[in-house]
Amino acid sequence: MSDLSERLREHGLRRTPQRELILAAVDRLGHATPDEVLAEVRTRSEAINISTVYRTLETLEELGLVRHAHLSDRAPTYHSVVDHEHFHLVCRNCHRIVSVGPDVLADVLARLRDEHGFVADVGHLTMFGRCVECAEPEEET
Amino acid sequence: MSDLSERLREHGLRRTPQRELILAAVDRLGHATPDEVLAEVRTRSEAINISTVYRTLETLEELGLVRHAHLSDRAPTYHSVVDHEHFHLVCRNCHRIVSVGPDVLADVLARLRDEHGFVADVGHLTMFGRCVECAEPEEET
DNA sequence: TTCCATGCAAACACTTTGCACCGTG
DNA sequence: CACGGTGCAAAGTGTTTGCATGGAA
After folding, report:
1. Fewer Cβ neighbours under 10 Å: the N or C end of chain A?
2. Domain map of chain A by residue range?
3. What is the CATH number of domain A2-80?
4. Which bases of chain D are under 7 A from a protein CB atom?
5. Tens of pLDDT along A43-83?
6. How far apart are CA A44 and CA A101, in angstroms?
7. Neighbour count for residue A125 (Cβ, 10 Å)
8. Whole-angstrom distance, CA of residue A27 vs CA of residue A83
9. Nearest-10 crossing angle of helices B17-29, B50-62
10. Domain at B87-135, CATH class
11. pTM here?
């Protein structure tokens, strides 16, 4: 939390209970959509508003305290950045999420930088596919 | 087009003018959102409905004729599969899109398969970041 | 003639915004 | 006590669905 106050102060923003509650909820949840964050906050304390959740998640992301990635075709999911940087594998069949450290991608990132002049942001990356347990996709229809 | 009729027949689906128009539009556009596909179709022929566009893109994807990826935080973009398989780099600053062949990822895919039991779908992949021209993002923040 | 496909409009899910009030600094 | 933050409600996007009609096979 102290990290939060600090960052807020640096940016001339105010410390509010809502901001603390929301950051704490994201930390606890691991990966969560704005809706899920709202629900989590509400289990602990009183009702805060969904638009505050959206505004706050945006703020926290600007402060570098959380990140978001698109783990489904629908809502984005936020996760705390205190966890080390990672990217996500999402199984299209069982929807299991695996977090993978950035090392695997080191070579690829270097090549993309050298050959395509592009600096990729690993923390935001999501790769969809299938885990071996769900291996066989449907044949035709 | 003949490819379309063929695939449709294989799946017991019907060939309709809308389906041909929409596939042709995706081919022409390269990367396009459902909205853009609709607009493109309308420049050529008469009004077709947005819900038909959605339904048809879904069908075409099931037939393996188009694919979609998430190139922005908003709408998905569809592209024809006649272009060889590729993934996308998207610059957060200038929104330029670079298509990259799957080879760069060969090693990574092998490692993900071996170490995480995960078969990633390259064709759907998007990596966000910055191209060198847009290089320096803000510090901190 | 049979059903699949389409158009239309309404419903949905998610997100953003305007404004008055509240509370931090 | 000034001004940024919040709650609330309404409006905005992007997408899906139910149903009656239309048209491919």
Report:
1. C
2. 2-80, 87-135
3. 1.10.10.10
4. 4-10, 13-18, 23-25
5. 987 789 999 999 999 999 999 999 999 998 788 999 998 76
6. 31
7. 21
8. 9
9. 80
10. alpha beta
11. 0.88
